[in-house]
Amino acid sequence: MHEQEVARAAELLRSAERVVAFTGAGVSAESGVPTFRGAGGLWEGQAVEELASPRGFYADPVKVWRFYEERRRNLAGVRPNPAHHVLAGWQERFPQYAVVTQNVDGLHQAAGARGVLELHGSIWRVRCLGCGREREERTVPLSQVPPLCPECGAMVRPAVVWFGEFLPETVMAAAFAAIERCQVLVVVGTSAVVYPAAGFVEIAAAAGAKVIEVNPEASSMAHFADVALRGPAGQLLPLVDARLEVA
Ligand code: OAD
């Protein structure tokens, strides 16, 4: 059923040298991670948008940390799926390649991807509110909630971007640069409704890149897609990858 689209996607990628994979929650759906807009939005009776915000954190850091602890616990046992593996493998294929993600789950890296541009930070990192130092924190469960900085003793926060916060500047700059000069943008599992997702697709298309969308549903950016692979990324990306081998 998807044969023509798979062949067309492989054809676009085969001759490309500069490729960007841009991913959202859907790339992790087949690993068992719920997508954002499918999640329901409440935790212990409070809106997730409130918990995952600076205001929510300063109002009740213990509650917000318990919320993140639950997410960390759920993610600790989760494994990357074939979509993550294909996207990681492409770093050996394309001379210039970047994975840009909105996800904080670390599954691209777990599949072996290097230099992943994490627009929304990572649930596996924390940042000190006192000295500003950021460090990896993979202990699950944490020995104390909220955790304290080993350097200065102040409280730390999850190094994720919260609602109402700016995206990390250097990561954004690197993502924009890669997207502006790519020849093919592969957009996987994002509804592309929030900034900068929508902007990325538009910029790439305006700069002449071909856009491949991998999503069971048409996203808000679907009209930019030169090829639309309508199905689960964990099934369709391996088909595209296998097709790349065929001359
Ligand atoms: P969404 O939950 O908005 O969208 C997930 C997309 O994945 C939808 O378009 C689904 O159709 C698609 N999808 C579901 N299963 C899939 C599968 N097996 N293969 C491929 N696609 C599949 O998640 P995002 O677009 O990532 O920001 O949301 C973007 C940002 O909005 C999030 O990072 C979050 C939220 O506000 C912050 O937390 C700052």
Oligomer: single chain
Bound molecules: 2'-O-acetyl adenosine-5-diphosphoribose
Number of helices: 9
Sketch the major β-sheet: 6 strands, parallel
What is the CATH C-level name of the largest domain?
Alpha Beta
Q: What's the N-to-C terminus distance?
A: 21 Å
Q: How would you classify the helix and strand content by structural class?
A: alpha/beta
Overall mean pLDDT stands at 94
CATH superfamily of the largest domain: TPP-binding domain
Q: Could you spell the SSE succession in H and E letters?
A: HEEEHHHHEHEEEEHEHEEH
Q: What CATH architecture label of the largest domain applies?
A: 3-Layer(aba) Sandwich
Please tell me about this protein's structure.
It is a single chain. The protein is α/β, with parallel strands linked by helices and 247 residues long. It has helices spanning 3-14, 48-51, 54-59, 61-76, 82-89, 107-110, 169-181, 197-206, 233-245, and strands at residues 18-23, 42-43, 46-47, 96-101, 117-118, 121-128, 134-136, 156-160, 184-188, 210-214, 227-229. The chain folds into two domains: 3-33 and 79-120 and 166-244, Rossmann fold (3-Layer(aba) Sandwich); 39-77 and 126-160, SIR2/SIRT2 'Small Domain' (2-Layer Sandwich). The two termini are 21 Å apart. Residues 24-26, 29-30, 35-38, 102, 120, 161, 189-191, 194, 214-217, 219, 232-233 line the site of 2'-O-acetyl adenosine-5-diphosphoribose.
